[in-house]
Design goal:
Length: about 350
C-alpha cells in the first residue's frame, strides 16, 4: 500500500454527461480512472438533457468514489487532496460534483482543488507526454469550446482566438443530427467521412481575415442544412459519405491552418491538441502532416483522455497542489467559467 507521504489526489468530473473519478499519484501514476457514461440514456433525445444528466450523476458518484478507492487499494486517509471540476459546464451536473467533493474534503480536512474543465483537457497531454516545453500553442476543440491559446507555463494562458458562434464539436453534432446519423454525432460523422470524397462539395471556410485566429462554424453548418433542404425539395438523392467528408474537410482545414499560422507568427515550436474533437482521426492526420512540414512538434492525448474524464482533472490539480493553490469552502459551480 502507498505511504502517507506520497502525493495522492482524487479528482471528480461531472461537467456534462460523464460521471468520472480518478486517483493520481505524484502527478503521473494513474491508480484508478473510472467513467460512467450516460450516452445510451441521452441517445433517445438526440442530445444531453441537463436534468437527466444531473440525476444520473447523483446515482453514480458515490459508487464510483468507492470503486476508485477499492481499485487503487487506498482509503480516504491516504489521500493528499481532493479535486473537482467547477466549470464550465451544465450547472446542475457541476453542482453534484462540487457539493460531493466539498463535503468530503471538509469532513476529511483535506485541501480542496477547484479545476477548470478546459484546463483539464489541456493537462490530459501531461498524463502521457513528459517532454513538452513552454511556450506552446494549444488547440482546445470540443463540443462546447474551440479556442487557440498560448501556454507560457503551468497555469499561464493567453487567448489567441476562439469561436464566435458554434464550437467545432457542436457543429459536428448538429450536422450529424440533420443527416440522421444519431448521437453522439462526431465519431459517427468521422467514420462516414472515411468513405467519401472531401472535395465532392464546395463548402465554405470562415477564415475571418489573414491575422484573425478566431473561428466560426455556424455558416458552414447552415450551408449543410440548406444543401439537405434543397435536396429534399428537389427529390435528389444525397451521397451521405461525400457530404460528411466535405463538411469534415472544411472544419479540419480551418482548425489546422489557423493553429499552424499562429504558431509560426508567435515563434512557438510545439502544438498540443485537447478536447473531444482532438480524437477525430482526420484532424489528427492533417495536423500531423502540417506540423511535420513546418517543423512543429505535435502532441495529443490517447482517445480515452480526449473525452471527459477525471484523470485529466487530477493531472491539472497536481500542478495547483504543488503551488498551494487551494479553493475556499465557498467554491461553487460556475457554468460559464473562463480559462483565459
Amino acid at each position: 500500500m502507498l505511504g502517507q507521504k506520497k502525493e495522492i489526489i482524487m479528482a471528480v468530473e461531472t461537467s456534462c454527461d460523464e460521471t468520472a473519478v480518478a486517483i493520481l499519484a505524484e502527478g503521473e501514476k494513474l491508480l484508478s480512472n473510472l467513467v460512467a457514461s450516460q450516452i445510451k440514456v441521452h441517445q433517445q433525445f438526440g442530445g444531453v438533457v441537463p436534468e437527466i444528466a444531473s440525476r444520473k450523476h447523483l446515482e453514480q458518484i458515490n459508487r464510483l468514489i468507492s470503486l476508485a478507492l477499492e481499485e487503487a487499494r487506498l482509503t480516504f486517509t491516504e489521500l493528499s487532496a481532493l479535486a473537482v471540476t467547477y466549470g464550465p459546464g451544465l450547472v446542475g451536473a457541476l453542482l453534484v460534483g462540487v457539493s460531493t467533493v466539498k463535503a468530503l474534503a471538509y469532513s476529511l480536512q483535506l485541501p480542496l482543488l477547484g479545476i477548470n474543465h478546459l484546463e483539464g483537457h489541456l493537462y490530459a497531454n501531461w498524463l502521457v507526454h513528459k517532454d513538452m516545453e513552454f511556450p506552446l500553442v494549444g488547440l482546445i476543440v470540443s463540443g462546447g469550446h474551440t479556442a487557440l491559446i498560448e501556454m507560457r507555463g503551468h497555469g499561464e494562458y493567453l487567448l489567441l482566438g476562439q469561436t464566435q458562434d458554434d464550437a467545432a464539436g457542436e457543429a459536428y453534432d448538429k450536422v450529424a443530427r440533420a443527416m440522421g446519423l444519431g448521437y453522439p454525432g462526431g465519431p459517427l460523422l468521422d467514420a462516414l467521412a472515411r468513405e467519401g470524397d472531401g472535395k465532392a462539395l464546395d463548402l465554405p471556410r470562415a477564415w475571418l481575415g489573414e491575422d484573425n485566429y478566431d473561428f466560426s462554424f455556424s455558416g458552414l453548418k447552415t450551408a449543410v442544412l440548406n444543401y439537405l433542404n434543397r435536396a429534399v425539395l428537389k427529390g435528389e438523392k444525397i451521397n451521405q459519405a461525400d457530404l460528411a467528408a466535405s463538411f469534415q474537410a472544411s472544419v479540419v482545414e480551418v482548425l489546422v491552418e489557423k493553429t499552424v499560422r499562429v504558431a509560426q507568427k508567435k515563434g512557438l515550436k510545439s502544438v498540443l491538441m485537447a478536447g473531444g474533437v482532438s480524437a477525430n482521426s482526420f484532424l489528427r492526420e492533417e495536423m500531423e502532416k502540417r506540423c511535420q512540414t513546418e517543423g512543429l512538434k505535435l502532441y495529443y492525448p490517447p482517445v480515452e483522455f480526449c473525452t471527459d474524464n477525471a484523470a485529466m482533472i487530477a493531472c491539472a490539480a497536481h500542478y495547483h497542489y504543488l503551488k498551494g493553490e487551494y479553493a475556499d469552502w465557498d467554491l461553487n459551480a460556475v457554468p460559464q467559467l473562463r480559462l483565459y
